[in-house]
Amino acid sequence: MTQAQETKQRDTNEEAIRFALFSAHEHDVRFIRLWFTDILGTLKGFAITIDELEGVLRTGASFDGASIEGLAREGESDMVAMPDPSTWQILPWRPRENSVARLFCDIRTVSGEPADTDNREVLRRVLRRAGEMSLTYYVAPELEYFHLRSSDDPRPYDSGGYFDQSSDNAGADLRRQTVLSLEEMGIPVKHSHHEVSDGQHEIDLRHTNALTMADSIITFKVVVKEIASQSGGYVTFMPRPFTQSNGSGMHTHMSLFKGDKNAFFDSDSPDNLSVTARQFMAGLIRHAPEITAITNQWVNSYKRLVPGVEAPVYANYTAGNQAGLVRIPAYRVDKEDSIRIEYRAPDSACNPYLAYAAILGAGLEGIENEYELAEPLTRDPAGMSASERQAHGVVQLPDSLDSALRIAGDSELLNKTLGPAVMQSFLRNKRLEWAEYSRTVTDYEISRYLKLL
Question: pTM for this structure?
Answer without folding.
Answer: 0.94
